[in-house]
Amino acid sequence: MRPWFGLLPAALAAAASVIAQTPACSLFAGWQQRGDNRVFEGDNLFEYMDGNSEGYLVYGFVRMKGVTCTKAGDTLVFDISEFGDAESAWGMFLANRDIEKPVEPIGTGGQTVPRKTIFAKDKYFVELAAESDRDHTAELREMARIVESGIGGSTSRPEPLAWFPQEGLAGGTARLVPESVLGIRLLKRGYVGQYGGAKAFVVTEESAEAAKGTLGRLKSRFEGAAQATVGDEAFCVKDEYLGSLCMFRKGRHVGGYANVPDGQDASTLARALAARIPE
């Protein structure tokens, strides 16, 4: 048996990790806690943010811990939300960022505006919001870096983000859609990139056989769908709601383009996307 003191470093590391993921006003010089700690798990999040809780739950929200801090008349709301995995936390960040503003190198990615900073790291999504009207940008950015340094885990972004061509991609990155990609229930969870009016998407299934079944069911939904040469198999069609579209399967991935404007060829765009997806 290992001596008890041999377990101490691991126990201390685990304790430090838990502390780092628990908001504390003492992380920031001069700030004091006001009121009690907040803890919300699962569906009871609506008690804290009735109108916005669904936006968290759809990404696999697990729990939120938060505190309110004060300093010289200023108030800061500090919340850390845990999600089921790093991909979901990143998806939550993308859903809340301003696509007109750049993503900053904080954790997996962050963004700071005058009264709020948000970032994702591993399976955590962090929000720091100042209530006064003055510009808090520099202070909030520094706070975010302090919090980020105490959260362990990966800062790697989901692999599918690299598959979307960068040229013309709105906001510089695709976003995670947690359900019904393109509004189609068959496409349960995947990534969508906006290119002007056109939308590129990639959904990863459990196996190539599952992806083959998904593409087959998709094709049967569109009257007049014609076979195309993209990836392992594909079809293109014009739809009343999704416009000119082309969908393909490559291995266990289903992808394609929809709402492609006149003057552009959906199959050419889909072929370029498929070429970026690994075998």
Low-confidence stretches: 1-19
What is the general shape? elongated
Give the CATH topology of the largest domain. Answer: Protein Transport Mog1p, Chain A
- The mean pLDDT is 91
For the biggest sheet, the summary is: 7 strands, antiparallel
Domains, number: 2
What is the string of SSEs from the N terminus onward?
HEHEEHEEEHEEEHEEEEH
Number of strands: 13
- Terminal Cα separation, in Å? 46 Å
Give me the Rg, rounded.
22 Å
Give the class from helix and strand content and strand pairing: alpha+beta
Q: What is the CATH architecture annotation of the largest domain?
A: 3-Layer(aba) Sandwich
β-strand percent reads 25-35%
Question: Can you offer a commentary on this structure?
Answer:
The chain is α+β, with helices and mostly antiparallel strands. It has 2 domains: 4-149, 3-Layer(aba) Sandwich (Protein Transport Mog1p, Chain A), CATH 3.40.1000; 159-276, Protein Transport Mog1p, Chain A (3-Layer(aba) Sandwich), CATH 3.40.1000. Helix content is 24%, strand content 33%. It is built from 6 helices and 13 strands. It has a 7-stranded antiparallel β-sheet with strand order 7-8-9-13-12-11-10, with helices on both faces. The protein is elongated. It starts with 7 loop residues before the first helix and ends with a helix. The model is unreliable at 1-19 (pLDDT under 50).
